[in-house]
Amino acid sequence: MKANRIVVLAIAVLALIAVTSSRAWPQTFTTIDYPGATHTRLFSINPEGTMVGIYVIGTMFHGILVTPDGINTIDFPGSAVTAALSINPAGDAVGWYAYTLTMNRGFLLQRGAFHEIDFPGAKTTMPFGIGATGDIVGAYQDPGNHFHGFLLRHGDFMTIDVPGAAETQVNCITPQGNILGNYRTSEGVFHMFLLSEDVFTTIDVPGAVSTGGFTIGVGINPSGEIVGQYRDTTSVTHGFLLNADGYTTIDYPGAATTVATGINPRGDIVGRYRDSAGKDHAFLLVR
């Protein structure tokens, strides 16, 4: 997949979403663990309920595909590590792999075949999301070690940088073309953003020290419901849902931290929580 053009989107003014209302709902979690894994993490769920993520054993990790029939491993051929990060309604999945634990390269898994995704001239390429129309979004690292977001559409790459941000990462795209991601300021603070009709809008949970974060994962569904995570003033990380009712905190009962990473059109949410022993477990939250 090669670039014929590169366009930097640096449009409009950042605005703070000032929604402060919150409405709780009965939160019923299902824990999902890969057998024998040190950690299990989910990042995406499609309309059929198929999920993708990773499992970790020691320092090595592998992609996973979770269906009602069980959990299957996704490994890019010959790679040392593989991360599966997004799946669309057609069952196409994207993520990244590495041969040496350093130079990350992107992949598309479509109808059982792997295809490489490399941003031209980048040190690393990491696709984080694939939309219903096949658009792919993610982040790449330039030769100066700075990260930029990207959109890959019909074989053309477009760079996406939040105006004034030190680094940008794009995580997902809706059928309407709305893009959700994260950015980091020069002070090192993380924020989420929504890019819609060439306008960037910052998403910050009221009272949070930071919202979102790189490589963690955030999600949006076609209805515009958004999930992510925030860190409070006591340095505890919580998941959240943002919809027409406002912000709702998502906390796995008794967990040290909770992260929400994906949401499908039905409103089913996936993510992970960390127990008191420091082990990550994936979860499915059905509303």
List the helices and strands and how they pair.
Layout: E1 8-9, E2 28-32, E3 39-45, E4 51-57, E5 60-67, E6 70-74, E7 81-87, E8 93-98, E9 105-110, E10 113-117, E11 124-130, E12 136-141, E13 147-153, E14 156-160, E15 167-173, E16 179-184, E17 190-196, E18 199-203, E19 210-211, E20 219-220, E21 226-231, E22 237-243, E23 246-250, E24 257-263, E25 269-274, E26 280-286
Which overall shape is indicated by the principal axes computed on the Cα atoms? globular
What order do the helices and strands follow?
Answer: EEEEEEEEEEEEEEEEEEEEEEEEEE
| Global Rg | 17 Å
- What would CATH call the class? Mainly Beta
Question: Characteristics of this structure?
Answer:
single chain; 287 residues; mainly beta; Neuraminidase; globular; disordered N terminus
Task: Explain what you see.
- The protein contains no helices and 26 strands.
- A hairpin with a 2-residue loop joins β9 and β10.
- It has one domain (8-286): TolB, C-terminal domain (Neuraminidase, 6 Propeller).
- The strands form 6 sheets. A 5-stranded mixed sheet has the order 1-14-13-12-11, with no helix packed on it. Strands 19, 20, 21, 22 and 23 form a 5-stranded antiparallel sheet that branches.
- It has 287 residues and is mainly beta.
- The radius of gyration is 17 Å and the shape is globular.
Briefly summarize what is shown.
The chain is mainly beta.
